[in-house]
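Q: Here's a chain of 505 amino acids. Please give me its 3D structure as tokens.
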Amino acid sequence: MLDVLTSGFRNARMMMAGRAELNEETIKDALREVRSSLIQADVELGVARDFVARVQGKVSGTQVQLKDKRTGMQLTPADWFVKACYDELVLMMGPEGGALDLTGKPAVVMLVGLQGSGKTTTAGKLARLLMRDGRKPMLVAADIYRPAAVDQLMVLGRKLAVPVFSIRGMDPVKLSKLAVAQARQVGRDVVIIDTAGRLALDEALMQEVVDIKATIQPSDVLFVCDAMMGQDAVRTASEFDRRLDFTGFILTKMDGDARGGAALAIKAVTGKPVKFLGQGEGLDQLEAFRPEGVAQRILGMGDVVGLVQDFERHVDKDTAAADAERILAGTFGYDDFVKQLRTIRKMGPIREIMAKLPFMSDMLAQLPEDAIDEGELDVVVAVINSMTNQERKNPDILNDSRFKRIARGSGHTLAEVKDLHQRFVQARAMMSGLGSMMRNPAQFRALQQQAAQMQRSGAFPGMGAFGAPGAGMPNDDLPTETAEERERKRKLKKKQKDARKKNRK
């Protein structure tokens, strides 16, 4: 969803490369590119204009220090331009929405929004998030007009082992009041009310949610907004806010391929904070909104904090520590390898995970959409599943005879199986070397100093001060892959994939 914005800011950054100073003349092309990308991403025109004006006011005529005294890093006009864009993106989207207001016995969270925005799924996700923090939520099916919505909430409640309060046909206002009383009696400390939606705004819908709010006095009223709605999202949110004065947003479907700029600029229009982002259908795919992380991803800086949080949600810390010791000692087997692959798959699409890594955004932009094939992980798992327990635990015993049996059992060629094993051996050797180096403090410090020197000298192209992608120094010595070569590789990869399908049949 952020691709349009990321591409525009990347182009602006490249336009600033080699500039000696910041003035109206040197930044006009970059600002035009930024404004164009914001508008293409569906950011409201007034918000886009204000954004560009603020960036221009920050950088025009700025005297750029050539060296940061604290870090010793070399600074460029491009670095200052990127920093100004970063600050204004955070300002446009932020500040952080903060935690839910869980005062009250029980606390009441009311979800509102149009039909199809993802309220029911979000109610389940929110319940799971609260359970992780030690809370005892209750779900309330107040959308009595859509039996499917009630059934869906019941299914989610069973998955989570969370009670769902529902009385079919009862007036939603009375039902919500009864639900709060019931939660108080059975010791549930948070009530999440899934209200009804409509395909479009109408007076009956608005009056119903206004009456529910007036009756139960919720501690939080959250507008669930489909990030793929475009400018309609802003208009709808403004009307709900006018009638309800809600406390914040939950943006859903952030993993979609729509432009999404309207959703990111919604705080600038309404003044209400975004509290959570929903990405995917999984009940664990709801995260606190961090404007800094989204701004970093838009600018190609990655989002390491978000990546670590994703990892922590899916990994047991004690198990992860033991696994890390084996991996860095170079003693891990295929069982460990598959475990790590499954953890990665739980965290989301590979391209999304890579986009949160620094240095990776520019590289991903140069790859065709099908360059990262999620199906390749299934191929790896199929090959490993065809091994015996002994072979998975001790890969060193594998030989030609075993490779042939594994190839037959997995439906892949002998060459593919051997290639996988060769890459596994190389990865294990590399991790062993890294572990050895980390256990040698002097060697590790030397590597850190070398990396810092490389960055200062521009050997990491595109990375400037502040940890942000600045102008950097072009690396003309690196060979560039032509479009013809990329197309040839794509066709070869497709041919190999078709051959594997044929072998399976």
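Q: Can you summarize the key feature?
A: DSSP finds 23 helices and eight strands in the chain.
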